[in-house]
Amino acid sequence: MGGDALLGIALAAFAPRLRPGAPDQVTRMVRLTALVAALWAACLALAWPPSVPFYQLAAAISGFVALVLVLVLVRLLLRLPPVLTAEESVRDLLTGALSRSGLIQGYRQLPSTTPVSVALIDVNGLKLMNDVQGHNTGDLFLHSIAQALMSALPAGSLIGRWGGDEFVTLTPYTSSEIVMDTLKAALRDTPGARPGLPAFAFGVTETHTPEPLERSIAVADERMYTFKQRQREVQVMQGSGVGPESLDEFARQLDLLSTPDELLPLGLSLSLQFVGFEAAAYYGRIDGSFRLLNFSGSSELRDLHGQLQTHLNNGQGTTGEAVTTRQTTWSADYQNDPRSVPEWREAGLKSVLTTPVYDATRLVGVLCLTSFNTWHAVTPQRRYLLERLAQRIGYSLERTRMHDSDPWHPSEERGQT
């Protein structure tokens, strides 16, 4: 029994070292189990009657003890958290940049009094992209930002992911002016989360090792917010507007638009930007038939949407189903959808999202988002966004109708909306 028992004790005592980073409490538990088993075997050996062949039962007991120890060991090892390799511990697995701890470690390893330009980069529009287009799209966007920074900054720069949508870069022996010019060039060449929105904002400062890195990041963070405010001011001056950063903010912006003339063009444009589709259309119901009244997208797609609107009147396809069921309908893979219309398949439609518009209880129109270049998952957030717009348009149409019928507010001649 001595050999088997010693083997079991050795396994129990040293097995945690087979898994780097094993918690101390696991080591203590395994060793305690081995000690108790060894003491139990020793006491049994001392108290065993001499008349009974000891070696027969001893062999069974030693095997049982070894089995128990192995089972305990396996169970504990399976419960241990995965241990990252040295490379994984300093790298952000999503973006390929350094992790926060890896960046700090790299800064501390620089020679003393090394001049360093510190930049904090904040990604614009990531939250809304995650909400509306899904986290996979947001992850790809973050990865593209990291790759753009790695390609643009000078050799020897350290690029790390500091937080969810923030990066910090450290560029030794390079002035802040050069780093700013480099980041501005990268910003011009990097597509944003939506049209008209810059991909990121940044702030830059200078320091020397071993000055506290956190102090420099605080200064860069302040300058980044100043830069971000300038970006928003430029958007306003250029007439591109300042888009919302979340679905809640999108809803609040819609609430500020009160008339159909405001809601239809601006609402369609905003929706198109945020959901990532290529065209947004509003079909109004006039004398029982649907007509294309408002559109956001290319002129080629506008002509196509104008030509292929008869299915709405006939209740065909996913868009026609929205009319007949009076509910939101969609298709992420229109080409293989049994509800699809041949004309739209031939036109190359890949994904579509449609919701009805009501004035009180009357069906007065249909909102439709389409994509021809690629497929889009129709997430609950995308449906919410379009349904929220439809609700606001319906409410504004109802208010306009009530205002026109009010004898205290004479009607004015208005164009068709």
**Radius of gyration over C-alpha positions, nearest whole angstrom:** 33 Å
Which blocks of ≥5 consecutive residues have pLDDT under 50?
A: 1-23, 406-417
Q: Proportion of β residues?
A: 15-25%
Order of helices and strands: HHHHHEHHEEHEHHHEEHHHEHEEH
Give a short account of the largest sheet: 5 strands, antiparallel
Structural class: alpha+beta
CATH topology of the largest domain: Beta-Lactamase
Mean pLDDT: 80
Level-2 CATH architecture of the largest domain = 2-Layer Sandwich
User: How far is the first residue's CA from the last residue's CA?
Assistant: 93 Å
User: What assembly state would you assign to the polypeptide chains in this entry?
Assistant: single chain
CATH superfamily of the largest domain: GAF domain
Q: How are the strands of the largest sheet arranged? A: 6-5-9-8-7
Helix amount, in percent? 40-55%
